[in-house]
Specification:
Blueprint lengths: L12 E5 L6 E3 L4 H9 L5 E5 L11 H16 L6 E2 L3 H14 L5 E2 L5 H7 L4 E6 L1 H5 L1 H10 L4 E6 L4 H5 L6 H11 L9 E4 L8 H8 L4 E3 L2 H14 L12 E5 L4 H11 L2 H4 L1
Parallel strand pairs: 2-3, 3-10, 4-5, 6-7, 6-8, 8-9
Antiparallel strand pairs: 1-10
């Protein structure tokens, strides 16, 4: 299925699992949709990956806002009933603007799982792996300030890490070398938890575990997204009855069927479905 071309943008191409969807997760990673599909299997999902403009984490705030509004306009035109911004960078930079433009639409954002990490490890050392933009935005600064009295919070910008997932490179020597370069200094002192502050990173949890060792707990925010989504749908009477089988539809802004196939594979990987 080809979408009508917008000025200056390629048409997203579509691969359908079962049939079309009414509900979407528009982001550049599939991990949040994995948890949501598992816990709310009766819903229909439209997953949009903007690979044409990835990575978002190195762009300016204005550019992220512009792209997010363009993507949201394209997706809301398809009749979605909720919008999950399954990207920490877009949540930090653009979710307030999205909510202003679509006040009647339930819009659920993403944030690093600092709260559960601190609750599980009070007084501990919490390492937060995320994009530079996520760590520089006020949303993360406010989170860090809120919990800094309860734990030592260590931000770690991981520019280039999400590209491993975009390539489908979830293990191997190049990835391990990158992770050693990023993590070894931080791990010279014991770390109690590693928070994966990008929705690409859960697919790399196995590789991160291999480098970090057995001690740190590894957390991401996908479960919290699902809880929030369920609550918002119930509040507005939009939650489909249990017992039905929903559908998953993949879209991508690049004309590359291999990216759609990769999204489908990631949906069923251990890292995404754990």
């Amino acid at each position: 299925m080809i979408f009508r071309r917008n000025a200056g943008r390629r048409d997203p191409i579509c691969r359908r699992s079962n049939f079309r969807s009414l509900f979407l997760i528009p982001a550049s990673a599939v991990s949040a949709s994995c948890a949501t599909v598992r816990l709310l299997p009766q819903e229909d999902y439209l997953y949009f990956g903007d690979s044409l403009h990835a990575p978002y984490g190195v762009k300016s705030v204005d550019e992220v806002v512009r792209l997010s509004l363009e993507n949201a306009a394209m997706l809301t035109a398809r009749g979605i009933k909720a919008l999950v911004v399954a990207c920490n960078t877009v949540t930090s930079a653009a979710i307030a603007t999205l909510r202003e433009h679509y006040p009647q639409l339930p819009i659920i954002g993403t944030e690093p799982a600092l709260k559960p990490a601190v609750e599980r490890h009070p007084g501990g050392r919490i390492l937060v792996m995320a994009t530079a933009m996520t760590l520089s935005e006020r949303k993360f600064s406010d989170l860090r300030e809120h919990y800094q009295q309860d734990a030592e919070i260590i931000p770690l910008a991981c520019s280039g890490l999400m590209e491993f997932v975009e390539r489908g490179e979830l293990s191997g020597p190049n990835l391990e070398a990158y992770l050693h370069e990023k993590l070894d200094l931080c791990l010279r002192q014991p770390v109690d938890a590693i928070v994966l502050g990008c929705t690409h990173y859960p697919f790399l949890a196995g590789a991160i575990r291999k480098v970090a060792g057995p001690q740190p707990e590894i957390l991401d925010g996908s479960h919290g997204i699902t809880i929030q989504l369920r609550r918002r749908l119930e509040e507005q009477g939009l939650l489909k009855p249990e017992g039905q089988k929903g559908t998953v539809t993949f879209l991508n802004s690049l004309d590359d069927p291999e990216l759609l196939a990769l999204s489908e594979r990631l949906l069923h990987t251990e890292g995404g479905m754990s």
